[in-house]
């Protein structure tokens, strides 16, 4: 479960952002929709503990992450959250398999080649694991991004503008894939986007407006 209360954040140069209270049950799927400047990415980073709020609470499965010290927060993030970004951010000079194994160790865990193999089989990319990022198509890289987000068996999956560069068909395919793997792995899924095409794919939608509007 993810729950926020009276959450506020202020950049050094900018207005204070006030966010609506959010409550997501375990396994719930939600789209967070708003124009540029509405605070979508900021809220996503707050929920993940990448940013610290000016005030308010963020509770994840009975843990108030705002009260965790930095080392404990980093550990909690690595174990509980998976991320998918607009850009893929893979290490270019190593294979996709090594990229996935490294992602496991960055979270403080150990390499688990069997689980990586299981994920790549599930996502239909097992035959591509020895290729390098530059050798893959956009769609293949997206599937590896999903695999990387799952390698540490997180509780929640956060995606930041994952469809902004996709045409309509690929947009729908990718969102369907995210929803499918989230259901299969019983993950809470939150997608931050300004892409209005996504609205019809979700029953639960959080709309954000720029501060002052």
Automatic annotation (TrEMBL):
Gene Ontology CC terms: plasma membrane
SUPFAM superfamilies cross-referenced by the UniProt entry: P-loop containing nucleoside triphosphate hydrolases (SSF52540)
Pfam families for the chain: ABC_tran
InterPro entries linked to this entry: AAA+_ATPase, ABC_transporter-like_ATP-bd, ABC_transporter-like_CS, ABC_transpr_LolD-like, P-loop_NTPase
PROSITE patterns in alphabetical order: ABC_TRANSPORTER_1, ABC_TRANSPORTER_2
Entry annotated with the keyword Nucleotide-binding: yes
Keywords on record: ATP-binding, Nucleotide-binding
ABC transporter domain location: 2-213
MF GO annotations: ATP binding; ATP hydrolysis activity; transmembrane transporter activity
Nucleotide-binding recorded as keyword: yes
Protein's name in the database: ATP-binding cassette domain-containing protein
């Amino acid at each position: 479960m993810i729950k926020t209360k009276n959450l506020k954040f202020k950049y050094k140069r900018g207005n204070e952002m006030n966010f609506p209270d959010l409550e997501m049950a375990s396994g719930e799927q939600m789209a967070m929709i708003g124009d540029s400047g509405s605070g979508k990415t900021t809220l996503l980073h707050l929920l993940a503990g990448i940013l610290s709020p000016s005030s308010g609470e963020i509770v994840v499965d009975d843990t108030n992450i705002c009260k965790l010290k930095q080392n404990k927060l980093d550990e909690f993030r690595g174990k509980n959250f998976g991320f998918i970004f607009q850009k893929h951010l893979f290490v270019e000079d190593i294979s996709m398999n090594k990229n996935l194994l490294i992602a496991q160790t960055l979270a403080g865990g150990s390499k688990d080649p069997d689980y990586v193999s299981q994920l790549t089989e599930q996502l239909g990319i097992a035959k591509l694991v020895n290729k390098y990022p530059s050798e893959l198509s956009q769609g293949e890289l997206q599937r590896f991004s999903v695999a990387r987000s799952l390698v540490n068996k997180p509780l929640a999956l956060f995606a930041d503008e994952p469809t902004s560069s996709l045409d309509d068909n690929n947009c729908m395919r990718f969102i369907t894939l995210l929803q499918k793997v989230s259901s299969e792995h019983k993950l809470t899924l939150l997608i931050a986007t300004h892409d209005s095409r996504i609205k019809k794919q979700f029953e639960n939608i959080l709309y954000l407006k720029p501060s002052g509007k």
